[in-house]
């Protein structure tokens, strides 16, 4: 008879496996636990090509609930970013996949890839309420949006080649 694992032990195993999977991805520059706490991560996403965020690194803070994956992790941008789906004051991300559409089989790889894709193509239907003006700029003057997003990226994000 195999020993049964507690729910927190199963959650830790899932989180550890997902961290190992992310460490193999090219769009994730770094991922690791904070002070050895498997429920608290820092991850660094590389800005996708062909958009205002290219060549920059964006730091994310990730907090897992003790019953992950039943509840979605809380993911926030630590790096200030000019984007219609991200609050510059809190770093909060407005994505349905992180709220009402969360299901336990969504991996951190899928979630971070969704965030990366959102950087490429903002979803104005899910614009963060803190940045309604950013959504309007994106909708009405994409050149101005891209210029401002690039300026913010150069000001707040780390360059990909920086140590």
TrEMBL record:
PROSITE patterns: UBC_2. Transmembrane segments: none annotated. It comes from Buddleja alternifolia. Pfam families: UQ_con. Residues 10-158 form the UBC core domain. This is UBC core domain-containing protein. PANTHER family: UBIQUITIN-CONJUGATING ENZYME E2 (PTHR24068). Gene3D superfamilies: Ubiquitin Conjugating Enzyme.
């Amino acid at each position: 008879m195999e020993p049964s694992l507690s729910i927190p032990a199963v959650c830790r195993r899932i989180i550890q496996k997902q961290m190992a999977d992310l460490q193999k991805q090219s769009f994730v520059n770094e991922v690791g636990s904070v002070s050895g706490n498997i429920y608290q991560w820092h991850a660094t996403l590389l800005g996708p090509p062909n958009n205002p965020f290219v060549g920059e690194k964006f730091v994310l803070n990730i907090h897992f609930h003790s019953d992950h994956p039943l509840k979605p992790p809380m993911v926030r941008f630590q790096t200030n970013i000019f984007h219609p789906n991200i609050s510059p004051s809190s770093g909060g991300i407005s994505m349905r996949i992180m709220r009402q559409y969360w299901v336990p089989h969504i991996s951190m790889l899928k979630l971070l890839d969704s965030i990366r894709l959102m950087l490429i193509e903002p979803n104005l239907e899910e614009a963060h309420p803190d940045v309604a003006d950013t959504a309007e700029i994106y909708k009405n003057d994409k050149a101005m949006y891209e210029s401002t997003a690039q300026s913010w990226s150069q000001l707040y994000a780390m360059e990909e080649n920086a140590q």
